[in-house]
Amino acid sequence: MPPLGTTPVYFGNFLVTSQVFHKTAHSFALVNIKPLLPGHVLVSPLRAAKRLSDLDHAEITDLFLTVQQVGKMVERVYGASSLNIAIQDGPAAGQSVPHLHTHIIPRQSADLDEQGGSDAIYGMLEGEDGDIGRHLWESSRKRPKFPAVDDSARKPRSEPEMAEEAQKLAQEMARQHL
Fold first, then answer.
1. Which residues are catalytic?
2. Which residues, 6+ apart, have CB-to-CB distance to 39 below 8 Å?
3. What is the pLDDT of residues 132-150, one digit of tens each?
4. Rounded to the nearest 5 degrees, what angle is found at the Cα of 39, between the Cα atoms of 56 and 155?
């Protein structure tokens, strides 16, 4: 499969080119460094807009059409029956990277029953597990790493693991009837 391009893609200050599996005129989709559930991905505008209200008409239209297309694909690939689609629009809403992004989380019946039910996903997004900025910062090779705060079995993924998933999802996006 041909690469998505050689132009570097940034998510906030983080270079994420190898994690990107889909690009449009104004948006990109990338795999998550520490997915809350299998298939948890992000869709973000190419321009590093901090808030939803910062997007122009073309960008917001492209963003939500991309969310719809990527959502269909991850639902199919991960065998989900539903999706959580969430935007934490600003720091007070839990946004940890100052670059607007939409979480797409494939869901299955009873997938979080052991954590308190399907609404547990919102606490996961707002807590340390959903702090993408911290996980990206800790995985950066250019900065010192802090010790992990949580001791759960869910660990941040390596660059090669994310690149492999991005390649797989890029192939699935190419196969999908849009």
1. 101
2. 74, 77, 78, 80, 104, 105, 106
3. 555 555 555 443 333 333 4
4. 110
Unique residue bearing structure tokens 């460094």: 33
Instruction: Provide φ and ψ at 101, rounded to 5°.
Output: -150, 150
On whether the CB atoms of residues 83 and 104 are closer than 8 A, the answer is yes
Overall size of the chain counted in residues: 178
Q: What is the pLDDT of residues 35-89, one digit of tens each?
A: 999 999 999 999 999 999 999 999 999 999 999 999 999 999 999 999 999 999 9
d(CA 53, CA 33): 26
The answer to whether 33 touches 123, Cβ cutoff 8 Å, is no
Report which residue type is found at 120.
Answer: A
Amino acid at site 22: H
